[in-house]
C-alpha cells in the first residue's frame, strides 16, 4: 500500500479462514483524502479508492497467490472511514489445510493487540 499510495496503514492483520483471506488495515489516509473527508466528500474518496483497487487487483492477486501458493478465484476491497479501515478479501479456489487454519488461530490468540 505504501509503495502505491505514498502512505501505508499504521496497523495490519490477516485472518485465514477456510478458503478466505481477510487483510484488515487501519490508518494510512493520505492528506488529500482526509481533506476531502473533512469537506464531506467521502463518496469521492471511496470512488477513487475503488477505482485504484480495480487497477491494482491483478498485482494484489498475483502477490497473494505467490505468497500462499494458492489460486485466488476473486478479490474484493472495502474502505471504511470512521475509523479509517481497509478490508481486502481474497477467495481461494480451495480451502487451506487444517494445520494452516490452526496456525492462524494460534497467532491470533497469541497476539498482543495488533489491529
What can be said about this structure in brief?
By secondary structure, the chain is of the alpha+beta class.
Description:
The chain is globular, with a radius of gyration of 15 Å. The model has no long low-confidence stretch (mean pLDDT 87). The protein has one domain. A hairpin with a 2-residue loop joins strand 3 and strand 4 (84-92). It is built from four helices and four strands, in the order αββααββα. The protein has 115 residues and is α+β, with helices and mostly antiparallel strands. It is 45% helix and 29% strand.
Topology of this protein?
Blueprint: H1 2-5, E1 11-17, E2 20-26, H2 31-38, H3 42-68, E3 72-81, E4 84-92, H4 98-110
Antiparallel strand pairs: 1-2, 2-4, 3-4
List keywords for this structure.
alpha+beta, four-stranded antiparallel beta sheet, 29% strand, 115 residues, 4 helices, globular
Question: What is the overall silhouette?
Answer: globular
How are strands sequenced across the largest beta sheet? Answer: 1-2-4-3
Q: What's the number of extended β-strand segments?
A: 4
Oligomer: single chain
Q: What's the mean pLDDT score?
A: 87
Q: What fraction strand?
A: 25-35%
Distance between the termini: 16 Å
Low-pLDDT runs of 5+ residues are: none
Order of helices and strands: HEEHHEEH
Helix content: 40-55%
Number of domains: 1
Amino acid at each position: 500500500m505504501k509503495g502505491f499510495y505514498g502512505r501505508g496503514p499504521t496497523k495490519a492483520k490477516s485472518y485465514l479462514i477456510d478458503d478466505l483471506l481477510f487483510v484488515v488495515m487501519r490508518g494510512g489516509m493520505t492528506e488529500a483524502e482526509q481533506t476531502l473527508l473533512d469537506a464531506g466528500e467521502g463518496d469521492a474518496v471511496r470512488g477513487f479508492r475503488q477505482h485504484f483497487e480495480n487497477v491494482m487487483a491483478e498485482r494484489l492477486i498475483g502477490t497473494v497467490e505467490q505468497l500462499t501458493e494458492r489460486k485466488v478465484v476473486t478479490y474484493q476491497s472495502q474502505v471504511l472511514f470512521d475509523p479509517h479501515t481497509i478490508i481486502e478479501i481474497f477467495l481461494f479456489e480451495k480451502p487451506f489445510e487444517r494445520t494452516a487454519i490452526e496456525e492462524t488461530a494460534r497467532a491470533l490468540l497469541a497476539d498482543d493487540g495488533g489491529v
